[in-house]
Amino acid sequence: MELEYKPDFSIAKKYWDAFWNGGVIDRPVLISTVPKNPENPVSPPPYMSGIDGDFEKTVHLFEQYAKNTYFACEKIPSLSIAFGPDEVSYFIKGAEKRIVVESDTAWIEPFVNTWDNFPVLELDPKDKWYKKLISFYRYTAEKSEGKFLIDMLDFHTHLDALRAIRGTEKLCIDLIDCPDEIEKRLLEIRKIFSQLYMEIYKAGNMEKWGTIGWISFYYKGKFATIQCDFICMVGRDVFRRFVLPAIEEETDFLDHSIFHLDGPAALVHLDDLLSVKRIDAIQWVPGAGSRPHIEWLDVLKKIKGSGKGLIIYPEDADEIKIFHKELGPERIAYQIDFRTMEEMESIRNWLEKNT
To answer: How far apart are CA 115 and CA 216, in angstroms?
Structure first.
């Protein structure tokens, strides 16, 4: 099966299969878009498009973008459905009325004042935000059939979800004052991941077309980006007790996964993350104000040396050549957009000749 906006979809899938299997066809994976009119490029819909319920407008804007964009090499056209960074927390029973939406962001106001006698943390299928999200996926799946895919949700589960509904400062104190209670609540909230994933998987017709995430990796089965941004706030012992079991559970549920590792403060947990066998790849993000990717080769080599894959964000084609020399082609994916097809083809050809 091909896609209207990705006529070489079947070829791209072969490169993705090679990536997940640790092999190489003739070069590393290259994820790239190129505007058809470099002088007047068309952008995808802005973040959180459709949260107002106007799904038709969002799909129309995406199609205008797709019609005016080349999805080169292993880049697959996909619409991102997002209701804000803490959207998973919106669907917890009791959260519905705590959501605040502004023009370009949304968040949840913490509503757990005390854990004493607080109800079980569970997915609320009657929650208006949950129903809107699933409706959005169903609508888009119908309109996108044979044209483009839909991103799997940006999951902020387990400790990130507790942080959203309890508040950062209070949760930090809880981890010291009542760790057994937090462990109990994590066991409750961890059930949401697989439940929510499968609802989206079905609503988005992903069993037929495969899955793609906000990190633009693709797999024909169950794939997702997993993460826990809260790990920047905790030490190794807390990570190993409260976070690592949840990560292992999520990776066991999925066929393939990539872990979003964000910021230097999170690097203290890298060794533990690399020990999780079913994490297939790491997205290392240095964070705002930190050194660019090219200056973190020591971290990238450590990840690659453990057998994990990498997504790398080069500043330009010359950096790709440096990364390629230092890291090799296996389990490497470069994401970089080009202004013209000639620029993209030049680096693609170079990679093929030097792999």
So the answer is: 38
Are 149 and 209 contacting, i.e. CB atoms less than 8 angstroms apart?
A: yes
Whether the model pTM is above 0.85:
yes
In DSSP terms, 107 is beta-bridged to 100
Strands 99-101 and 106-108 come out as antiparallel
Average pLDDT of the residues of the chain: 97
- What pLDDT, in 10s, does the model give residues 151-185? 999 999 999 999 999 999 999 999 999 999 999 99
CA-based nearest residue to 217, from 254, 269, 263: 254
Of 216, 305, 201, nearest to 253 by C-alpha is 201
Nearest to 306 by CA among 261, 344, 264: 261
The pLDDT of residue 308 is 98
Closest CA to 31 of 228, 313, 266: 313
Q: Count of alpha carbons within 13 Å of 234, Cβ hemisphere only?
A: 26
Give the start-end residues of each E strand in 157-212: 211-212
Rounded to whole angstroms, what are the CA distances from 127 to 38, 63, 134?
A: 43, 29, 11
User: What is the set of domains in the chain, with CATH numbers?
Assistant: 9-353 (3.20.20.210)
Asked if 235 and 268 count as a contact pair (C-beta separation under 8 A), the reply is: yes
Cα(184)–Cα(90) distance, rounded to whole angstroms? 20
Strand partners, 108: 99
Asked if the model's pLDDT at residue 288 lies above 80, the reply is no
Beta bridge partners of 78: 149
d(CA 4, CA 145): 9
Rounded Cα distance between 277 and 271, Å, is: 12
pLDDT, tens digit, 9 for 90 and up, residues 180-239:
999 999 999 999 999 999 999 999 999 999 999 999 999 999 999 999 999 999 999 999
Alpha carbons within 13 A on the beta-carbon side of 96: 14
